[in-house]
C-alpha cells in the first residue's frame, strides 16, 4: 500500500516481535523500530542479532520486554506511524482490549497491520493433509491447535473489520496468506520458490482464493 510518501522514515511498533526478523528488516530499511516481546528465549535471540548489526541499525532498534496487552504502559498515545501485530491476537483471551491498546498508540494517518488465523477456513489445512476427522471438527470452530499443541484462537474477517472500525482504524485492505503452500513442501530457494511466492501473492489478493487462506493479513488505516 502506498499510504506513506516514498522514503519517509516511519516510527514502527512491532508487538510480539518474536526473534525480530521483521523488525530488523524494517530497521535496515531506515525506519525507527520498537519491538515488544515477553518470551525470554526470543528476547535473547533478538538482542544478540541486534548487537551484531552496525551502529546505524542498532541505533534505530529498541527492544522492550513486555506483554502485548501493555502498550499503554510503555508508550504515549499516537507514538507510532505503523503498528504491527502479526500473530498476537491468536494468544489473548480479549482481543478487543489488545486492539484498543494498539489503536491508542497509532498516530493520525497511521496503519495498523494484523495477521490472524482465518477462522472461516480452519477446515482447509487438515483437509489438504487428508486429515478428514480434523477437517470435520474444524467446521464452525474458532479455535485450533498450534505447532506446540496449545489451543489458540482464530478470527473472522468481518469480526476483525468491525473491531478495527471500533478503534477508528477501519479496514482499508486485506490479503490471504498461505493459500496453496499448506498442501505442499516449500522449496528452500530457487525458481520453484519464486514461482510459489508469485502464485501465493496473486492468490492472496484475488477472490475467491484469498478467502480460504490459512491466515489473513488485515490493514486498518487511521485518517
From TrEMBL:
Alphabetical list of InterPro entries matching this protein: Methyltransf_11, SAM-dependent_MTases_sf
UniProt keyword list: Methyltransferase, S-adenosyl-L-methionine, Transferase
Gene Ontology biological-process annotations: methylation
Keyword S-adenosyl-L-methionine included in the entry's annotation: yes
UniProt-recorded Gene Ontology molecular function terms: S-adenosylmethionine-dependent methyltransferase activity
Limits of the Methyltransferase type domain: 13-113
UniProt xrefs under PANTHER family: METHYLTRANSFERASE (PTHR43464), UBIQUINONE BIOSYNTHESIS O-METHYLTRANSFERASE, MITOCHONDRIAL (PTHR43464:SF19)
Entries under Pfam families matching the protein: Methyltransf_11
Name of the featured protein: Methyltransferase
Keyword Methyltransferase among record annotations: yes
Amino acid at each position: 500500500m502506498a499510504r506513506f510518501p516514498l522514503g519517509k522514515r516511519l516510527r514502527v511498533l512491532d508487538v510480539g516481535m518474536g526473534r525480530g526478523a521483521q523488525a530488523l528488516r524494517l530497521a535496515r530499511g531506515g525506519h525507527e523500530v520498537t519491538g515488544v516481546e515477553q518470551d525470554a528465549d526470543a528476547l535473547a535471540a533478538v538482542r544478540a542479532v541486534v548487537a551484531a548489526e552496525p551502529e546505524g541499525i542498532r541505533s534505530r532498534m529498541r527492544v522492550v520486554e513486555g506483554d502485548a496487552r501493555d502498550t499503554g504502559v510503555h508508550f504515549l498515545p499516537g507514538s507510532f506511524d505503523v503498528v504491527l501485530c502479526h500473530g498476537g491476537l491468536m494468544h489473548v483471551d480479549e482481543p478487543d482490549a489488545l486492539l484498543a491498546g494498539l489503536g491508542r498508540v497509532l498516530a493520525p494517518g497511521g496503519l495498523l497491520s494484523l495477521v490472524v488465523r482465518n477462522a472461516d477456513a480452519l477446515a482447509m489445512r487438515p483437509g489438504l493433509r487428508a486429515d478428514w476427522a480434523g477437517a470435520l471438527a474444524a467446521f464452525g470452530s474458532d479455535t485450533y491447535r498450534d505447532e506446540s499443541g496449545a489451543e489458540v484462537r482464530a478470527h473472522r474477517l468481518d469480526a476483525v473489520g468491525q473491531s478495527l472500525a471500533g478503534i477508528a482504524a477501519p479496514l482499508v485492505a486485506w490479503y490471504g496468506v498461505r493459500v496453496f503452500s499448506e498442501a505442499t513442501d516449500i522449496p528452500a530457494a530457487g525458481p520453484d520458490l519464486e514461482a510459489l511466492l508469485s502464485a501465493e501473492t496473486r492468490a492472496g489478493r484475488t477472490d475467491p482464493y484469498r478467502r480460504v487462506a490459512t491466515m489473513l493479513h488485515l490493514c486498518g488505516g487511521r485518517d
